[in-house]
């Protein structure tokens, strides 16, 4: 820390540092120390959110830059939480990260506590097959901040599986999940989905981070002869 040229001090003399200056210097020293010992790419608690700030998944704190996060990792709160987690895992008999189990099997890492960043943007377009005249929908979901290596997943659930609304047998839900976004659900008519080739499909555009889902409902005649309405899969007839 430079103690020269402070107000009220002679040239070459060391003035009294203010509290803010002392804290700033301490954080800088901690940051330099952490850079020598910590690789952020391998830190399981380091997370950059969608607004550009950094979060500690262990302590649930938010930091404006990586230097602030690194200084935080050297602080008492982070070190205490690390010790508590290690003690808890040892008590429960869980292997630490990188620890090997008897027989040469490597221990499974503790499930990550993913910080959700909200719902994805989406577009919905009504469709009608030009040949069969079946009605359907085309979903386009935007996942600009999707986690690396994650591919969105989709499934259908009945109205009686969900706990958000009063169950209504006339509706079903299409659920789409992709970390770190919140899982979103779309309320559909309780009509059977046509799962034959080319009728129902999904595609994830990795370059543009867009997930596409197309579904077509079976016609009334097909539903009448194929059983009760719902989301049960139905293959092509031979």
UniProtKB/TrEMBL annotation:
Keywords: Metal-binding, mRNA processing, mRNA splicing, Nucleus, Spliceosome, Zinc, Zinc-finger. It is found in: Nucleus. This is Splicing factor 3a, subunit 2. Residues 54-84 form the Matrin-type domain. GO terms for biological process: spliceosomal complex assembly. Its main location: nucleus. Belongs to the SF3A2 family. InterPro entries: Matrin/U1-C_Znf_C2H2, Matrin/U1-like-C_Znf_C2H2, SF3A2, SF3A2_dom, Znf_C2H2_sf, Znf_C2H2_type. Coiled coil: none annotated. Residues 1-23, 72-105 are annotated as: Disordered.
């Amino acid at each position: 820390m430079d103690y020269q040229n402070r107000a009220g001090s002679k040239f070459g003399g060391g003035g009294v540092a203010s509290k803010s200056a002392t804290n700033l210097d301490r954080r800088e020293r901690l940051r330099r120390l952490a850079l020598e010992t910590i690789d952020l790419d391998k830190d399981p608690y380091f997370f950059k959110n969608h607004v550009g700030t950094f979060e500690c998944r262990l302590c649930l704190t938010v930091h404006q830059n990586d230097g602030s996060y690194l200084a935080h990792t050297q602080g008492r709160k982070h070190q205490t939480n690390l010790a508590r987690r290690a003690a808890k895992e040892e008590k429960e008999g869980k292997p630490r990260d990188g620890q090997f189990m008897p027989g040469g099997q490597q221990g499974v890492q503790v499930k990550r506590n993913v910080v959700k960043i909200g719902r994805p943007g989406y577009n919905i377009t009504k469709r009608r097959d030009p040949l069969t005249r079946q009605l359907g929908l085309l979903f386009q979901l935007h996942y600009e901040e999707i986690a690396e290596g994650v591919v969105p997943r989709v499934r259908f659930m009945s109205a009686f599986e969900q706990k958000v609304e009063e169950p209504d047998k006339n509706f079903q839900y299409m659920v789409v999940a992709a970390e770190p976004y919140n899982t979103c659900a779309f309320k559909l008519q309780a009509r059977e989905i046509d799962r034959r080739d080319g009728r129902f499909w999904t595609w994830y555009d990795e370059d543009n981070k867009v997930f596409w889902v197309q579904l077509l409902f079976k016609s009334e005649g097909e539903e009448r002869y194929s059983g009760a309405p719902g989301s049960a899969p139905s293959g092509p007839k031979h």
